[in-house]
Amino acid sequence: MRIDILTCLPELLVSPFAHSIVKRAQDKGLAEIHVHDLRQHAINKHGQIDDYVFGGGAGMVLRVEPIAAWMDALQAERPYDAIIYLTPDGETLRQPLANRLSLFQNIIMLCGHYKGIDERIRSTYITHEISVGDYVLSGGELGAAILVDAVVRLLPGVLGNEESALSDSFQDDLLAPPVYTRPAEWRGLAVPEILLSGNTPKIEEWRHEQALARTQARRPDLLGQ
């Protein structure tokens, strides 16, 4: 998978992609992540990429020219399965959406900033608009980092155990059940005996019951209630 990210603050994305699972995916050649600075296509020598809002109002808007220049250049090199704009008014990122995106080969992610981007970019280039939650960030960079992590970890060969992602929260519309490791007893708190029994069918039954109970208590909306 190749992911191209357009941003006016590329330095914000250095650390998230230089460690842990996303770095492992890149080292294995399973994912390519390219971060592009919108200011490389600034409209003047001062590096301007934004302007005032037509009609008045506070805040600045990213101009069409720098974004369009990058979009056109990248699309001239290869086809893209999705061109994503990170925006608070987009579709909320949920696990099924991450699953679908993980099947794509080439993706562009556009990070908004200030008051956002000129609407003509949205109507001309964008195929998907995604929000990481019902809150506003200073820009789309952190949202892009979240989306990249959520998608890249699903690529075959990225995780050490292929089944690990399948048991994550939200994969089956349930939260994950409690998990335990050694020691079997700590400060008087013991691991449930069923997990030490070696009875795999019973263990899976217990885990499903626990996942269901946890979802009912914490996220009943996932159960359609």
TrEMBL record:
Enzymatic class: transferase
Cellular localisation: Cytoplasm
Residues the record lists as binding S-adenosyl-L-methionine: 112, 132-137
Gene Ontology molecular function: tRNA (guanine(37)-N1)-methyltransferase activity
Residue stretches making up the tRNA methyltransferase TRMD/TRM10-type domain: 1-224
Pfam families in UniProt: tRNA_m1G_MT (PF01746)
Catalytic activity: guanosine(37) in tRNA + S-adenosyl-L-methionine = N(1)-methylguanosine(37) in tRNA + S-adenosyl-L-homocysteine + H(+)
Protein keywords: Cytoplasm, Methyltransferase, S-adenosyl-L-methionine, Transferase, tRNA processing
Function: Specifically methylates guanosine-37 in various tRNAs.
Family: Belongs to the RNA methyltransferase TrmD family.
Quaternary structure note: Homodimer.
The name this protein goes by in its record: tRNA (guanine-N(1)-)-methyltransferase
Lineage, broadest ranks: Bacteria, Pseudomonadati, Bacteroidota, Cytophagia, Cytophagales
Gene behind this protein: trmD
